[in-house]
């Protein structure tokens, strides 16, 4: 369920290490303006990889939202064609980057 807004990366780290947060999305100020200007702003999606199956499921949802965004973007901008992607996903997991399950 939704959590209060994070005030800092330290707070993000504290909540993730404490198990109170499994996923956080960081959208930088000016994201839409940068995107419209042709720049490539970054959105960070922080996933707790301590439970690999949960992290992979969450990643699937994030990728689905991303694909939906791209579908809408290309529908509104038919002059563009892949690979002129306005956004891409780079995956980095926290606390278990290889998503290894306990043997």
How would you explain this protein's 3D organization?
Helix 3 (52-76) links the parallel strand 2 and strand 3 (93-94). This protein has helices spanning 9-17, 31-36, 52-76; strands spanning 23-26, 44-48, 93-94. It has 103 residues and is α+β, with helices and mostly antiparallel strands.
Radius of gyration (Å): 16 Å
Can you summarize the main beta sheet? Answer: 3 strands, mixed
Please tally the helical runs, counting DSSP H or I stretches of 4 or more residues: 3
Shape: globular
Mean pLDDT: 81
Given as residue ranges, the uncertain stretches (5+ residues, pLDDT < 50) are none
Q: How many distinct beta strands?
A: 3
Strand percent estimate: 5-15%
Q: Which percent bin holds the helix content?
A: 25-40%
What is the N-to-C order of secondary-structure elements (H for helix, E for strand)? HEHEHE
Structural class: alpha+beta
N- and C-termini, Cα separation: 30 Å
Strands across the major sheet, in which order?
Answer: 1-2-3
């Amino acid at each position: 369920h939704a959590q209060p807004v994070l005030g800092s990366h330290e707070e993000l780290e504290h909540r993730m290490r404490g198990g109170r947060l499994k996923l956080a999305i960081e959208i930088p100020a000016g994201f839409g303006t940068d995107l419209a200007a042709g720049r490539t702003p970054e959105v960070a999606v922080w996933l707790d990889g301590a439970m690999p199956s949960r992290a992979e499921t969450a990643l699937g949802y994030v990728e689905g939202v991303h694909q939906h965004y791209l579908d809408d973007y290309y529908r509104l901008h038919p002059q563009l064609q892949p690979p002129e992607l306005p956004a891409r996903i780079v995956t980095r997991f926290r606390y278990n980057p290889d998503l290894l399950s306990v043997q």
